[in-house]
Design goal:
By secondary structure, this protein is mainly alpha-helical. The chain has 4 helices and 2 strands. The protein has a two-stranded antiparallel ribbon. Helix 2 runs antiparallel to helix 3 and helix 3 packs antiparallel against helix 4.
């Protein structure tokens, strides 16, 4: 019986991931890219949440993944240049390659701890600017839809009654429907 999961395509994928020293980085970046695309979409499709809350949650999720991608890429490079090349400079090429590959995996693990800290620095000003723009839009819409009765001239109806509403004097205007 053959294994349906194992095949020539998966063999090549697994061999490529095993041979590539940057595979941990690329897997993490790929996951972050997909999460950055699909999580905001799924958040916006929630029918039971307030639309404003959905938008801000989707923006936060997108920003988190946009921040995660460079952190996943930069952390292993910084660790390699700052620590690995200085501490293990006298090792053989094969051992150094294994050390670098392992350090890249561990750096990706470290990145998952750094991402929330970086997000806490970057997201608040962006979300505050977004909230400020949304509040300005709401105020502009409220101002446009609020009737301005102070500057309107008073309307004198048929009976000479001075009213603010022009429809009061036109009660019998138009076609009569019903009895």
């Amino acid at each position: 019986m053959t294994n349906p999961v194992k095949g020539p395509v998966l063999d090549r994928v697994f061999k490529s991931l095993g041979d590539n020293p940057n595979s941990a980085i690329w897997v993490a970046v790929t996951i972050a890219a997909f999460k950055g695309i699909f999580r905001p979409i799924f958040t916006m499709q929630d029918k039971h949440t307030d639309p404003d809350k959905k938008k801000s949650a989707a923006i936060r999720e997108f920003l988190t993944e946009v921040i995660a991608i460079p952190v996943y890429i930069a952390t292993p490079v910084i660790i390699e240049k700052a620590i690995i090349n200085k501490v293990f400079k006298n090792e053989t090429a094969h051992v150094l390659k294994n050390i670098k590959t392992t350090s890249k995996f561990l750096s990706v693990c470290l990145s998952t701890a750094l991402i929330p800290a970086v997000c806490n620095l970057i997201q608040p000003p962006i979300m505050a600017a977004y909230k400020k723009s949304q509040d300005a839009k709401k105020a502009q819409i409220a101002e446009a839809t609020t009737p301005n009765t102070i500057n309107k001239p008073a309307f004198t109806g048929k009976l000479g009654v001075k009213t603010q509403n022009p429809l009061i004097g036109k009660i019998n205007y138009g076609m009569r429907v019903g009895s």
